[in-house]
């Protein structure tokens, strides 16, 4: 992609901050969407829940990337927090999509965040982008999240739904909590460990998002996951290998559910998603396996 102007919502998050750094390093001008008064010309104010945005600030953007949303694992899933998770994604996406559609000259592409939680519990069954949605809170959330982007798609903007898996990173996401436990020798599998985790390294997540921006033929749902999902048991063994620590503890499923409540479904559900569209479009993973993904995160 030639140097261009790209708007990013969720620019301060784990993936957003890494994406902004990558784009900026290659000479792109990044416009950050912020919820406070802008501090410069490269910031645009918005309020996703109240569905307000300074739409003129998006003018002349070649692309818009929406990665905003309250952290799924940041708090216990009370009814109030589930509403915050939903509203931050669904209302925020609708706000951006409607603003994009109303521009005199809309951007080339709108990349909207989503998640492999769309597929629900797939057990040992492998799913690609053609699979239907599952059931449960995360599945219904992902469906609404993607549907909220309809105004951009209907306005003729190439719209992509980045269905991301568990991002392997040291300073965010699930692994931010896992690394200290395993380093202390307290790591182990969750439940019977047979449920699949669809993971992706932070490096490949950012590279994949940039691939979505650059590849004109890609639209609709695209799974951002490593080529071979692994069971929690296999991930646990890899953590032990890479960190040179025993990984023999077991957190029984009932204990996980007691501790996390409904949120336990996020770590005990088996989702075996594969990146069909990414691979078909020629994307090359730098860290396709779990061992190299873990080592990259630790570096």
In one word, what is the shape?
A: globular
Strand content: 15-25%
- Under CATH, the homologous superfamily reads NAD(P)-binding Rossmann-like Domain
Q: Overall pLDDT, averaged?
A: 94
Which structural class do the helices and strands define?
alpha/beta
Describe the structure.
With 299 residues, the protein is α/β, with parallel strands linked by helices. It has one domain: 3-Layer(aba) Sandwich (Rossmann fold), CATH 3.40.50. The protein is built from eleven helices and 16 strands. Strands 4-3-2-1-5-6-8-13 form an eight-stranded mixed β-sheet, sandwiched between helices. A two-stranded parallel sheet has the order 7-16. It has a two-stranded parallel ribbon with strand order 9-12.
Task: Record the SSE blueprint.
Layout: E1 5-9, H1 14-25, E2 29-34, E3 43-47, E4 52-53, E5 63-66, H2 79-102, E6 109-115, E7 126-127, H3 137-147, H4 150-154, E8 158-164, E9 166-168, H5 173-183, E10 188-190, E11 196-197, E12 199-201, H6 202-214, E13 220-224, E14 230-231, H7 232-243, E15 249-251, H8 253-260, H9 265-268, E16 272-273, H10 276-280, H11 290-298
Parallel strand pairs: 1-2, 1-5, 2-3, 5-6, 6-8, 7-16, 8-13, 9-12, 10-15
Antiparallel strand pairs: 3-4, 11-14
Helix pairs in contact: 1-6, 2-3, 7-11
């Amino acid at each position: 992609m030639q140097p261009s102007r790209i708007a990013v919502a969720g620019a301060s998050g784990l993936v957003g901050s890494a994406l902004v750094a990558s784009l900026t390093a290659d000479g792109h001008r990044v416009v950050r969407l912020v919820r406070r008064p802008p501090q410069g010309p490269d910031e645009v104010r918005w309020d996703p829940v109240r569905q307000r945005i300074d739409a003129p600030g998006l003018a002349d953007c070649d692309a818009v990337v929406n990665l905003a949303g309250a952290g799924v694992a940041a708090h216990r899933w009370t009814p109030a927090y589930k509403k915050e998770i939903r509203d931050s994604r669904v209302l925020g996406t609708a706000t951006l999509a409607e603003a994009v559609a109303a521009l005199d000259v809309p951007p080339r592409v709108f990349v909207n965040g989503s998640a492999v939680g769309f597929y629900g519990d797939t057990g040992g069954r492998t799913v690609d982008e053609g699979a239907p949605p599952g059931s449960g809170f995360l599945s219904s959330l992902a469906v609404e999240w993607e549907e909220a982007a309809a105004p951009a798609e209907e306005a003729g903007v190439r719209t992509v739904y980045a269905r991301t898996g568990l991002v392997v990173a040291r300073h965010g996401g699930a692994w931010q909590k896992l690394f200290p436990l395993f380093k202390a020798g307290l790591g182990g599998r969750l439940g019977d460990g047979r449920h699949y985790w669809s993971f992706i390294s932070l490096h490949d997540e950012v590279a994949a998002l940039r691939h979505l921006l650059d590849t004109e033929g890609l639209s609709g749902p695209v799974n951002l996951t490593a080529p071979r999902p692994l069971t929690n048991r296999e991930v646990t063994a890899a953590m032990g290998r890479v960190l040179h620590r025993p990984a023999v503890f077991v957190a029984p499923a009932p204990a996980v559910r007691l501790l996390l409540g409904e949120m336990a479904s996020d770590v005990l559900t088996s989702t075996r998603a594969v990146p069909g569209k990414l691979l078909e479009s020629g994307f090359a993973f730098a860290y396709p396996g779990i061992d190299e993904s873990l080592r990259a995160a630790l570096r």
